[in-house]
Amino acid sequence: MNQSSLLSIPATILRDLQGLLADMRLHGIKKSVAAVMRPDAPGSWQLLKYLVIGGLSVFVFMGVCALFRMLAIHGFGASYDNHRVFWNLLEITVGFIPTNAFTYATNRRWVFVAGKHHPRKEFLLFTAAALLSIFASEIVAYFFITHSSIGDFLIKIAVIVVSTVVNFTFRKIVVFSR
Questions:
Q1: What gap in Å lies between CA 55 and CA 61, rounded to an integer?
Q2: pLDDT for 18-63, tens place per residue?
Q3: What is the DSSP letter of 80?
Q4: CA-to-CA distance for 5 and 147, rounded, in angstroms?
Q5: Whole-number pLDDT of residue 4
Q6: How many other CB atoms sit within 10 Å of the CB of residue 36?
């Protein structure tokens, strides 16, 4: 993305926001918000919804990871100190499963226009994108764990950033694009 494209994003968002306000005056809040929540809403709404759902996915991911860590330490006697790489990579992998299901359901309903593929194939492509992103994220996590003193929480933030970029690009181009 070049600099002029980046500069046009705020103008596009402002234009879409003005359109929403005008639409609200004409049709009311309920109908206007319903139009924004449709998957075929203008691009800036699509991006905003993707980021909001991504934020909710972060809570799902972090919650599952925290629950797994608690169970691993207290239930199985796991030692994150002695086997940090193993337990962190396992934790990230376990966190991926419910997060992927949540993200698929919400993205399909509110962000992207579904229907390019049969739902089963769409889910498999969506999951393939997620697996690609988790693989890239695991490499990043492994690198940070073995070559830096970055804490586990910041490593998960790096994993989320890598995952978001890979997933949005793949999903937009391959899974849901018409």
A1: 10
A2: 877 787 888 888 887 787 777 777 777 777 888 889 889 989 999 9
A3: T
A4: 35
A5: 55
A6: 20
